[in-house]
Amino acid sequence: MEDKKLTPKESMELIASMIQASKQRVAMSDLRIPTMWATISILTAVAVWVLITTTHNPWFNFIWFAIPVIGLPANILLSAKDRNKNYKKTFIDIVIDGIWKAVGYIAIGATIGCFIAQLCGYPSAWLAMFYYAFIIVGFGAVAMGLLLRENSYVFGGIFSIFSGFAVIICNLCQIPLLYSWSVSLYIVCFLLMFIVPTFIITHKLKRENR
Amino acid sequence: MKELDPLLHSQLRLAVMSILMNVDEADFVYLKEKTSSTAGNLSVQLDKLFAAGYISVEKSFVGKKTRTLCKVTAKGREAFEQYVEDLKKLLKIS
After folding, report:
1. Is residue B85 part of a domain?
2. Chain A hits for B21, Cβ within 8 Å
3. Predicted complex ipTM exceeds 0.90
4. What is the CATH number of the domain that holds B33?
5. What is the pLDDT of residues A131-166, one digit of tens each?
6. Across the interface, do B87 and A11 touch by the CB < 8 Å criterion?
7. Is residue A82 within 8 angstroms of chain B, CB to CB?
8. Could you tell me the residue range of the domain that residue B85 belongs to?
9. Is A208 on the interface with B (CB under 8 A)?
10. What is the pLDDT of residues A54-64, one digit of tens each?
11. Which residue ranges run through the membrane (chain A) (predicted)?
12. Buried b (16+ CB within 10 A) or exposed e, A93-130
């Protein structure tokens, strides 16, 4: 492209083509971070589930801390890697970043709250983290889906929110809920919220590129 | 007939402004790739847009590399919208 003068018609065509060229609503690099968190969450849940159901030792619940311990450094690494490539940020990118930052800060706050409750002799307070994972993360997925106009995120998020309310209702009504049911529901929710939409978007991007 | 803004009525500057109107911020490499321009030419045109106050340019370091981040300003947004309005009038598009 040069610094040449244009006719009005050429100007209009150029504006339209540049908008089209920079329009891509989502790039694979944008999906890497949520997919990484979802993968770590699912693998951790599987590890906890297997170890607790086979050994019945509640200390294995500490493995849940693998999510922030592995996830935070991985997030920093992936963000730094993305910053090295050609970079653009749309308003939607900024809003999505804000949503996930808010979800992350709520997680930190909730973890501190649960930890204090445990020190005060209420270890069952950690159940609140399950509600967080189902409902708050679910809201994040719904918001991201609405912004990206990707229905699979919306569907996964709504499924997760309803699952969270179902778990709360069972607890409030003192309906016994097997640990393995809750953990497997958690795994299904994260698969539907993040992994399935990633596959769908990857497929769509490949088709668009073709 | 009103004359089109000479600063925007040039292929590369208009392409850069169109991209920056669509994305919130973009770096030099992204703009170079999308406009298929040379680094030297793009740099000159970015300077002209910056001097006119149509874009803001922020230079920073990412690791050992420099990054030039461009963002359209309120003045640039207004000028671009006016330019499109003038184009529509010229082309008689309602």
Report:
1. yes
2. 19
3. no
4. 1.10.10.10
5. 999 999 999 999 999 988 889 999 999 999 999 999
6. yes
7. no
8. 11-91
9. no
10. 988 878 888 88
11. 33-52, 58-78, 99-119, 125-147, 154-177, 183-202
12. beebeebbeebbeebeebbeebeeeeeeeeeebbeebb
